[in-house]
């Protein structure tokens, strides 16, 4: 026992674990060397077997390598050298052997009997030099019944090594014997490469290298060996994994397999050489060069879904740059609560200090916040006092209604800054327009109107009303010495506003007008006006307009559509919608804000081109307006009948068709001239130059000609033949083509 224990002490931990695995000892994976020795000794005592028989299953190459001996001089424990079967999972080129039950039923055949069907399944791979790799052995190694020639054929019982006949699966594992044929092959091909023999010896020892890595390394070594030795396949040393008893020797392919490999290598090598030469003769591929546009990139406001950006949308950022007086809604910012309130004794004086601090300039308020908590709190409350003093009206009341319970604890500085910014924008827009040149520094609207107290569109409507009055004054050639000041602008219905004008010649008296919001054209004056300008004649509201306004004020016509454009009638319903080309309306939908601005200009132009009697003056039916426009003698005129005052803005069809559909009831009728139907609207000059025209001017294309109009009210200021009128060129500071003149031009 001492001798056997000394023999076991010479082994490594890995070798001891291999012995434990061979004997079927469990629980040895995490034990150290003394514990492993004790387990093996106890197992030998319990079974009664000696250590010598237990260590017989250890591969000689392992013992010799551990002691420093050459593996070539180690002797096998049996007189016959037998190669073991391939272990599953170690080599990717070897398939898993069939179960033992199936192996027992298969008859043992010779190599000549199985070479024909196996040769169909064999797959040989060639490298760039046409050499055959070691994968050609795969069909021969897949079958476990491959044996030597009949002269060396043996039974399964003779292949089993000593000491392993009692194992349950040992009888079903065939072994390939090594005969004198191995020495003949070694003499013909020469000894194995040194690297392959060393690595095969080292691989027999237990290693921490994964099985897949071992398999890849062995296959690469086999390929190197096959390249150095030609097409002759060298026998491979298969490492021992410990699942079966270790034996010496190597797997040697049969003569039939070697013949098949040689034939395949000779047939495949020329083909691969031709393919390589064909690839080498191909011309080198040219590097892809992207197309480079010579034109400079132009920024566009269109979304990625719009494939063709419009030229007129270049360098446009918002609606404020498309019109002189664009009425854009302003968002109401959130107002936070004031933090760090003062003590209870000082809160009584906070509101008084807020009134005092509301008179302090904003630049000095930051310093005042550092005085105390009471001053800081009072400064935040002073924003409410400033709003009530400078920006009174319905808009402020609407905002305060949202903070009714917390108004004394809320900071309204964000809303105050927004209202100040809005007023500053309107003042800048007025100074940049052409209106100040006519008023010589006088303000055309009151100080309160700059703040838009009742509606965020008030200032824009008031300034556009002043522009329309100026257009009529220039058209008739009579400029008034005193224009008056617009003091109020309130909406009556959606498209009808009431504007109040105060004259300096009659202080305390105001004159009220009803105007159309799209064109700011006067449609009449209410009868309850407190005063009138001595120079202006009577302009009462017609009965049809008066009834239209009263009905919408009472709410009876709220469901009938508030827009004045819904009352419009026009010619050629198939091609025009509201007097505007349907094809052009579909085309500008992809232009975003620019397209909406063009459509608004087109609608204003259509309302500005209706027959004069459609809006003001003596009431006329649609038939009478058509006949008067055509130069025919109109019949008797009469006013609208009371009680039948349905508003109807009529753009008549052909004059001959009007006689078949005479109006049954007097109503408001807009009768535009057919050649003023809109085909398109442009903000740039025609031709290839595409220069942006003045911000106050637009080009309207009609079926007859082009017209230059004002964007903010749709009134005409020029035509295609003459260009912009000379008076308007001086007023606007533009050329005949509508392009703005710069300093020095």
TrEMBL record:
Listed GO biological process terms: DNA-templated transcription termination
Gene3D superfamilies named among the record's database cross-references: SAP domain
Compositional bias (Polar residues): 108-130, 154-173, 192-206
Segments forming domain Rho termination factor-like N-terminal: 7-49
Region (Disordered): 47-247
Name this protein carries in UniProt: Rho termination factor-like N-terminal domain-containing protein
Organism lineage string: Eukaryota, Fungi, Dikarya, Basidiomycota, Agaricomycotina
